[in-house]
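TASK: fixed-backbone design
INPUT:
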């Protein structure tokens, strides 16, 4: 009886498994970082919407909104009047950061804050109206851990060290 030489040897199979393992170990951290970065970009959009709605409320009523329910913006998640807990972020209206309140440009209202605190990620995104370099108005992101600082850096929002009351 003649045996067929069709198929793979054990060495060939182990080589393929090793290559797949190496590629996975390289790709998985980059994939996780991309997912977290997309979450941060979503939070940036929500913070901008909250701040714009706060500005509109202030323009109409000449006072700061007392709660999210007074704003014309759809909040992710549920919460009390000045805090909304979403799937990945907690959003606060009028939060103080580092002992000071960041005001929305042209109003006396505090800007919104998005807080991420899950696993290896702990960072805040806030203050759309902070004047940055070149006269641009941009958000600010501060992270506590190395991975969080990396997310802020990848968004070009990294600024300084995290506040003491992070």
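OUTPUT:
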């Amino acid at each position: 009886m003649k045996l067929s030489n069709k198929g793979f040897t054990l060495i060939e199979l182990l080589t393929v498994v090793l290559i797949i393992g190496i590629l996975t170990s390289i790709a998985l951290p980059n994939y996780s970082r991309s997912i977290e970065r997309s979450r941060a970009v979503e939070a940036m959009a929500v913070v901008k919407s909250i701040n714009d709605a706060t500005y509109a409320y202030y323009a109409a009523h000449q006072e700061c909104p007392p709660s999210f329910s007074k704003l014309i913006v759809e909040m992710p998640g549920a919460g009390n009047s000045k805090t909304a807990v979403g799937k990945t972020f907690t959003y606060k209206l009028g939060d103080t950061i580092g002992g000071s309140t960041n005001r929305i440009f042209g109003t006396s209202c505090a800007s919104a804050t998005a807080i991420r605190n899950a696993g290896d990620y702990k960072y805040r995104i806030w203050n759309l109206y902070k004047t940055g370099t070149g006269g641009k108005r941009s958000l600010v992101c501060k992270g506590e851990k190395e991975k969080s600082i990396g997310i802020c850096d990848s968004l070009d929002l990294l600024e300084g060290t995290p506040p003491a009351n992070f």
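COMMENT: The chain has one domain: 11-154.
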